[in-house]
Amino acid sequence: MSDPRKLITAEVEERMLEVGVDFSAHPTERAGSFMHLDEASVHAEAKAEGLEVLAIRDALETHDWLRDLYGSLVPPDKDEYTRRAEDELHGGYFIRALPGARITAPVQACMYIMHEGLVQCVHNVIIAEEGSFLPVITGCAAHFGSRSGTHIGVSEFFIRRGATLRFSMIHAWGEDVKVRPRSAGVVEEEGAFLNDYVSLEQVRDLQMYPATRLVGAGAMARFRSVVAAPSGSLLDLGSAIYLDAPGARGEILSRNVSTGGRLIARGRIEAHAPDVQGHLECRGLLLSQEGSIAAIPELNAAHPDVELSHEAAVGRIGEQEVMYLMARGLTQDEAVAAIVHGFLDLGIEGLPPVLDKRIAEIVALSDSRSMEGR
User: Fold this and answer.
1) How far apart are CA 32 and CA 138, in angstroms?
2) Rounded Cα–Cα distance for residues 147 and 9 (Å)
């Protein structure tokens, strides 16, 4: 594979930084790196002991056992997009923490569309082996000026006994880009899957619904998402957690903002074992009279000894909240910005500072008439 620095212009580097990917970072800040550019996996490097980072094709040749896992959680015939990803596969990453490895700095991976109109098909596999800790930041972006294209990404996550996978995904696509992630995970006994997702930029059409099964006693999964739908966007997204083992715990938290786009926020927790707990919280904030948000929470208990709960709320910024902050010296814009910042803050770690600028842009796009009472 080539040195990615030969492919990374100043503009590409700037765009990657917006999704948390920094190829100039010190090894103490990034344990490994992967880059897929257009139709080719161009770089894979592991810097930490106990870590593997490979292009998926290289990994399949290196590890015969991987062929039994590949496609086992997201079958190629699941839908038209998984079939296309299989038939037209360009690449993808394989990231693995070996048994007992404690990876302290995050591994970074970037899926990048450089050219207009490209259809990118990738398949990724992440494995946190028994007793390991693995943090991963994935940034997906389209180049400045590349307004159209399609990204089809299949991802499979395997969290073994006593392992923890912390996975953060940041999307920054173009205004006419179609995005189809297809993801699934499995968590074994006392394992933990911590999944964070952020999308604050324009995208034409996003459809994603990752599903994770907790198959070992005491396993846990937490999904958090912060999403904005600008005018012209359609975002249909959510996640599902299946509590299939005693003592399993699942949590889904989402914050959704519309500045004129359509947003459908789904969430599903199913309980099939005793002594399990699940909580689903979906909140939406309308910042424009042109936008719409639909919250669709689902709980399904198939065992009497379970505890499932959900909260769902969609509304506008309360005028009283704005007036309260203005009475303490803030301007109206500053008050609205403070409310939106607080609403979107789910405590997600490791997000790039540039996202604060994007939140400010979201506030600037808000329609003051959308406040309650106006």
Assistant:
1) 12
2) 19
Return d(Cα 358, Cα 89) in angstroms, integer.
33
Reduced to 3 states, what is the DSSP secondary structure of residue 287?
A: coil
* Strand-pair category, 40-46 with 32-37: antiparallel
Cβ 172 vs Cβ 198: under 8 Å: no
What tokens were used for 364? 């600037």
Does pLDDT of 295 surpass 60?
yes
Whether 238 contacts 207, CB under 8 Å: no
Alpha carbons 239 and 212: distance in angstroms, whole number: 8
Measured distance CA(177)–CA(249) in Å, rounded: 35
For residue 176, what are the β-bridge partners?
A: 148
Can you tell me the distance from the alpha carbon of 145 to that of 142, in angstroms, rounded to the nearest whole number?
8
Rounded-to-integer distance, Cα 334 and Cα 219, Å: 42
Quote the pTM value: 0.92
The b-or-e profile of 72-108 (16+ CB within 10 A means b, else e) is ebbebebeebbebbbeebbbbbbbbbbeebebebbbb
Other beta carbons less than 10 A from residue 37's beta carbon: 23
179 vs 192: CA distance, rounded Å: 27
Measured CA distances, 191 to 59, 70, 82, 247 (Å): 24, 20, 27, 12
Alpha helices by DSSP H, listed for the chain, are 10-17, 56-62, 66-69, 80-87, 319-326, 332-344, 354-365
pLDDT of residue 4: 55
Which H helix or E strand runs over 19?
none
108-140: pLDDT as tens digits:
999 999 988 999 999 999 999 999 999 999 999
